[in-house]
Amino acid sequence: MTEITQCPICNGISFAPFITCIDHAVSHETFHLIKCTDCELVITSPRPTTEQGKRYYESPAYISHSNKAQTFIDKIYVTARTFTLKWKMSIVDKHAAPSRQKALLDFGTGVGQFLKLAKSNGWDVAGVEPSEIARQKAPDIISKDIRASLDEITHGKQRFDVITAWHVMEHVHELSATIETLKKLLRENGTLIVAVPNHRSWDAHHYKQNWAAYDVPRHLWHFSVKSMTRFLENHSLRVTGIVPMRLDAFYISLLSEKYRTGSYTIRSAATSFTNALRSNRYAKKSMEYSSLIYIAHR
Ligand SMILES: [Zn+2]
């Protein structure tokens, strides 16, 4: 296990205890979260090393790497994901500068659904996915475009018009080194699109230690608008927009309600639905949505 003693965003060394959570999805082990008193970054510390961390992903319950929907919640997740994929594509098309090349890198490709959609929409695609199991599940049409690490991309001279990281930065051990590499891979005025959960959302406050988006110890960092904006700007990336992910409140509330009550019932589904609506309503003024997409430019 590794303890974090310096904030990777602001270099601060002052932390306050934040919350203690259980790994509901895989190990049922307990993890502590601390908050940087300066930039608001919440950190899972101590956390497993990169090597130790692998076993926390090796579970059939870990849906992100799976295409097979088994439980009711999985089915809802997969249905929403199909809808969300198309919506994500529209976000990319809206924020990408016009380019003849149309080169897109998806960092943290998972089983590759977004990459497949981007390819079918005329993008020249590349993906990075460290999990071998996930890479093997990728559709044939894009399997040759997916690499195991960013190093394999940096060896070439390719530059990208758009780099996407959909719910990935919270999993990355080397935060600063990774964003620097991504920045170098982005062409001048290229678009970086980063989606992460928001620990200042209404659903995070409501569900506390049962908030599904803490997802310890897979989530190593827990961002807010303040910490993510500072993170990107520290690396000379201009934040040009923040886009709400309203649908995330529904899925995260559904899963959180399951963690809270210990089982899944019609009643808890109804409660989670109401809470998701509440979260989105609260965020209308505050912009503190369950998850946010940050649009940044080089
Ligand atoms: Zn900090």
CATH class assignment: Alpha Beta
The CATH architecture category equals 3-Layer(aba) Sandwich
- Rounded Rg: 18 Å
Q: What ligand species are in this complex?
A: zinc ion
The CATH topology label is Rossmann fold
DSSP, total strands = 11
Question: How many structural domains in the coordinates?
Answer: 1
Question: Would you give an account of this structure?
Answer:
The protein has about 300 residues and is an alpha/beta fold. It has a single domain, classed as Vaccinia Virus protein VP39 (Rossmann fold), CATH 3.40.50.150. About 40% of the residues lie in helices and about 20% in strands. The protein is built from eleven helices and eleven strands. Helix 2 runs antiparallel to helix 10 and helix 10 packs across helix 11. About 40% of the residues are buried. It binds zinc ion. The site of zinc ion has 8 residues, from loops.
What keyword list fits this structure?
298 residues, alpha/beta, Rossmann fold, 4-stranded antiparallel sheet, 38% helix, binds zinc ion
What would you say about this model in short?
The protein has 298 residues and is α/β, with parallel strands linked by helices. It has eleven helices and eleven strands. Helix 3 links the parallel strand 4 and strand 5 (124-128).
Q: What topology does this entry show?
A:
Elements: E1 15-22, E2 30-36, E3 42-44, H1 50-53, H2 72-95, E4 103-107, H3 113-120, E5 124-128, H4 132-137, H5 140-143, E6 146-147, H6 151-154, E7 160-166, H7 175-185, E8 186-197, H8 202-207, E9 221-222, H9 225-234, E10 238-244, H10 246-261, H11 266-286, E11 291-297
Helix pairs in contact: 2-3, 2-10, 10-11
This protein binds zinc ion (ZN).
